[in-house]
Amino acid sequence: RNVSGTIRQRNLIQRISPTGQTNQYIWGSSSAIEQCITDIALQSNQFVYITGSMHNGGNGYDAFAGRVTNSTIRPSWEVYPSPGSSRGDFGRAIVYGADGVYIASEWSGGSGGVWLTRYDTSGAIIWQTLCPSSAPEFNYVHDLGQDDSHIYAVGSTGEEYWEWDRESDKADGIILKVCKDSGVVDQSWRFGTTSNDIASSIFVGSDY
């Protein structure tokens, strides 16, 4: 909506029952310039977890994540998985597991990278890992997957999602395998051709 000449964007979270009954909530401050939810995860029928980004009032964005009670569609907590920077941090992907909530967010501070953060279900940080400090260059994250012991993060090494207009910044696709208990990157795969390559999504099966 437009308020006093300023575009202000918030998020409508809507729950629709099988019978068509609707329950909804508008997430975000009415004073925020721009907010965007980019991914959602479900914990049984109890809670919904979201992640995204919001304009910080300066020249950049802050990543955020939160938990919404499924029955009432009302928030129960909100956290900020990246330390913040002057340019922009973006929450991109979230998954829920029996041992916690995992969030991947891009960070433009320092040399840039991707923060992988594990929270418990009350919103407290269990561990946080910055890649590429513990892995090959990793600047853009698009999706998360999981098995019983690991989180898998996929994305690219480029500074932007699409970079074929800048040959010097050719992007390679990348997949990280991260231990759920410690946050340590156990294994990584990087692939690329002479153009731009991006790992955009992942599905983890029982044996592949």
* Main sheet specs: 4 strands, antiparallel
Q: What kind of assembly state do the chains in view correspond to?
A: single chain
Total of DSSP H or I helical runs spanning 4+ residues: 0
- Please write the string of helix (H) and strand (E) elements: EEEEEEEEEEEEEEEE
In total, the number of strands is: 16
**Terminal Cα span:** 45 Å
In the sheet with the most strands, the strands line up as 5-6-7-8
Question: Which spans of ≥5 residues are poorly predicted at pLDDT below 50?
Answer: 161-166
Inertia-based shape: globular
How much of the polypeptide forms β-strand, as a percent range?
A: over 45%
Quote the average pLDDT.
79
The helix-and-strand class reads: mainly beta
Helicity, in percent? under 10%
* CA-atom Rg in angstroms: 18 Å
